[in-house]
Amino acid sequence: MSKLSFDYSRFDRIEDSDDEDKHHPNLDKGLNQRVIRITRDRKEEEIDTEKKKLEEAGKSEEAEKLEKKRPLHINNMCQVAEERTIINSASGRRDRLVKDSESFSVNEYQEFKIDHESLLEKFTHANWEQSHDLLAKHGDILLDDNANNYFLLTTLDEEMAGNKERVQKLSTQGQIISQIHQLAKPMNRPPRDLVHRFFERFESDQAQAAFQEGVDHFLGHIQKRAVQKKAEMEEEAEKEALINEAKEHGEPVPLIEAMHEMKREDRLGPGGLDPVEVFAALPEELQNCFKSGDVEMLKTVATNMDPEVFQKHWDAILGSGLWQQSG
């Protein structure tokens, strides 16, 4: 029997946290999140544009290598071609349209976990026969792309937490789901149609050994990614310590250059003012304060400038989000 082939390289690029929660202490949080989100989206657009050029030039191998460099996060892990899926379940008939390259949102994934927590946990602890039965009865849920992502991300989380027994269970059950998807893909069939065929295919001892090899391969990549992620978290913790230190001293970090590339409506601050326009209207001495991040210079400028003039500029600075007022 031929073995199924799986590509695990994408696991090396998994990001299980949302960088939008990280922001400079003196920049308005909402504005900073929009800067990060739009910058990330623009990088993805650049990859898409370059990939399209390579494909049009017949350089498919280079295009594939470029795609493998794309960082993965929860919003871009599930991408499928346009299709209409008709699902028959005990709760009735559901019709879902999935558009080309449309990614599931974080909210949808979180809602999926909450709505189906009991079933996901039951499947996690199921044996081989019970898994077959659960997939036959609840394939509309367990073979959903969100379920595939659940077992992938939860396995990574548990590996980082050192819960080895749970990691083994999640890996095995996640691979059942993943390999059914892999079996269905070249046939262009819904994964649920291949549930019985999958379990029939892996009945023999030899087939079970091949399946376990896939689980072990998956575990190896998860363990490698967990080590990398821990190192990244330690590095991030060091950066966070520096940010907290900066917060104590009130040191600003200008993001004017990044904001220039954003649409005006996307960069408006909490007071509805455009930070780029506000910055351009500031006197040179105030601009230099933001460029250098020198708080003492800012204090000196404030002392030497006419109080009413400084207050006018300062109100605009706060309203544009160039500075986040404490308290």
UniProtKB/TrEMBL annotation:
Alphabetical keyword list: Cytoplasm
Biased composition (Basic and acidic residues): 14-27
Pfam families linked: CDC37_C, CDC37_M
Cellular component terms (Gene Ontology): cytoplasm
Occurrences of domain Cdc37 Hsp90 binding (ranges): 88-240
InterPro entries (alphabetical): Cdc37, Cdc37_C, Cdc37_Hsp90-bd, Cdc37_Hsp90-bd_sf
Ranges where the Cdc37 C-terminal domain occurs: 267-326
Residue ranges, annotated region (Disordered): 14-33, 40-66
GO-annotated molecular function: heat shock protein binding; protein-folding chaperone binding; unfolded protein binding
Cellular localisation: Cytoplasm
Biological process according to GO: protein folding; protein stabilization
Highest taxon above the source species: Eukaryota
Family affiliation: Belongs to the CDC37 family.
Protein name per UniProt: Hsp90 chaperone protein kinase-targeting subunit
Upper lineage: Eukaryota, Sar, Alveolata, Dinophyceae, Noctilucales
